[in-house]
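Obj: model holo form, ligand = S-adenosyl-L-homocysteine.
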Amino acid sequence: MEAQFSHLPVMVREVVELLLPVPTGLIVDCTVGGGGHAAALLDARPDWSLLGIDRDADAVAAARDRLAGHGTRARVVHGRFEELGDVVARHGEGERVMGILMDLGVSSAQLDRGDRGFSYRHDAPLDMRMDARQELTAADVVNTYDEADLARIIAHHGEERYARRIARAVVAARPLHSTRQLAEVVRDAIPAAARRRGGKHPARRTFQAIRMEVNRELPNLAAGLDESVHLLGPGGRVLVLAYHSLEDRQVKRAFARWAGEDDEPPPGRLPVEPRARRQPLVRVLTRRPRRPGAEEVAANPRARSARLRAAERLDVATGARP
Ligand code: SAH
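Output (holo structure tokens):
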């Protein structure tokens, strides 16, 4: 049931505009997906080359196809942005990195591939892995995590207020094998009056939470951001499109930290240098995140929650970590 990889790139005009001023060099698209942003970037500046990365083999194939017309200016590799430094060292051919783009979350193509278990709209085995080489699946999370962990994940990643009831119901219904079973258990755990809040499916938040857990999306973002800023040449820019408030908050804090504006240490680390001695690595280009226009949201519902932030690497002699 191989479908065409269909995904509309979000805020593509704003992404191109924010990258246009960077010097000649390599643009790294960390989440190349179907290659929508990548194609627009390659069209915008003939002096750029582009390295596309995706952890999903289907996306890699789709992006290679889409970008084939650009010849050697475009390379696409199967990889993970939390290992950005290694991937660029291996495949960047020594070019200076001048742009880094992360477009987070799942693609429409992943949601539409019913057999991969991302969506409550199709009945499928509980999988949800973006990278099929990974072991942990949604079935493992649903059937083996203890109730308290499940409740915590659903509440935190899903921002779901009935997380404890849902976790209890899931544990009672084990073993669960399919997305349909999970969607039904979640729906039945939510009080009838609250099931259709905002016109959304009652299982939407729980599915999102489990997907974020299976794919370690929040920790991976933290790791990818940490690597990105050190790869950029002076005047290079990093852009992140986030679709979840927890992700956007991480991006905002990372940028503030690099700009020397925020003393809060990253989770699990001690503050090493006092504020005054820390040299800014970047200038933040978006005080507030950019949002899509009403027209784009009407044409592409995936754009609705998008927040775009950008920062520019300063010319600092030290390669030291902030
Ligand atoms: N910008 C793309 C769409 C990206 S959708 C376009 O214009 O077509 C997000 C993509 O990020 C998905 O294909 C997903 O597989 C990929 N992805 C998510 N987390 C990743 C990670 N840690 N490393 C690499 N790719 C990742």
